[in-house]
Each structure stands twice: as structure tokens, then as C-alpha cells.
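Demo today. Your pick:
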Amino acid sequence: MTKTRVSLAVVKRLPKYYRYLGMIEEKGIIRVSSQELSAITGLTASQIRQDLNHFGGFGQQGYGYNVEELRSEIEKIIGINKSYKAIILGCGNIGKAIMNYKGFKSSGFNIVDVFDHGDKVGNKIFDYEIKDVDKLDEYLAENKPEIAIIAIPTEQAQKVCDRLVEGGIKGIWNFASVDLKLPKNVVLENVHLDESLYTLTYYMNNLFDYPGTKN
């Protein structure tokens, strides 16, 4: 049986479903219908059913979805039912913000070490002693983290990225303002803060196009 490729739009909505189901579960709600999820998420009930049907039939006619079971299934689909070792490259403002964010650990993402260069090496920030990026290759060989978070200047990003790929990194979360070149077996997720802000200002000036707005 040929597997159908799941679209980026569907993948981007899965964390939203996971988050809202967590909020529902905290209220002690046991089951929820697609119509009720629609009212909470702002997506149509039909869209929700279509999205979830990509991964199997989780609901029952006339019953809806078991909140705990559906959240558990989405957790497995996203892949956060297991833990990941992650490293940060760069301890500037973005790197520090990521280091200090407490939510990653509860989702299975363990920031194990942080790298930089020069006089930053050896300093302690929060609970992390900054390691020398010049020794990154040896570190990757010995420790085998799965994820690297790039928060370094643009001009250095591709070179560091190449070393990460060579060292066996499986996924890169990129905050540098550059489109990195990666082999297809390494997953890249870019976070361009200016693009997100430009999306905000576009919708502020074009409310007709804003998702969920009644035309």
C-alpha cells in the first residue's frame, strides 16, 4: 500500500491539536467532538476530521474522540513520546532564551550542552558551562545528540551546519537568517523571526485574508 505524503499544513496543525487537547484534559473532560474542537481551535470540524484521518480513525460516530487517547496518539505521531538530546550553538540572546525555556524538558527535549567560542568558553550560563565549538567534532562522535539548535551569526552558520551533519545530527533547528543547505536525510526547520512578524503585519493590514475571519 502506497503511503500518502502528509502536507506541511497538516503537520503544522498537529502541535495545535496536541496543545488544545492538553488544555481540555486538564479540565477533566473525557471526550470531545470535532465540532467542540472546532469551536476551540478555530478550524472547521471537517478540517479536523480530515487531518486526523491521515493517521487513522480515532473517533467514533456519535461519541467523538477520547481526549486522553487522542492526545496520546498525536504525541506518538509528532514523536514526542520519546526523548531527544539537543545541543545549542551560540549563547547570545536567542541561545540564552532557549537555554532558559523550561517547557522543552517536559516534552522530551533535553538541552545537554551549549557551544560558543573565544572568551565565552568556560563561562557558566544558567546550568550550562559553555563548551568550545572548536571541539564540536569530537563531542558529536562521543555523545551523539540528535538535534542541534543554531543560534549563531549568519556567516558562520553553514560551516557549523556542515560539521553537524558530518557528526551525525538528525535534525537542525535554525535561528540564523540564512537558508542552510542540507542532505535530504537531515531535517531542517527554519525559524525566521522577521518573517513571522511580517506575516503579522500583513494580516493586520489585510483582515479579509486572516484565517477564521468571517467575510
The radius of gyration is 20 Å. DSSP finds nine helices and ten strands in the chain.
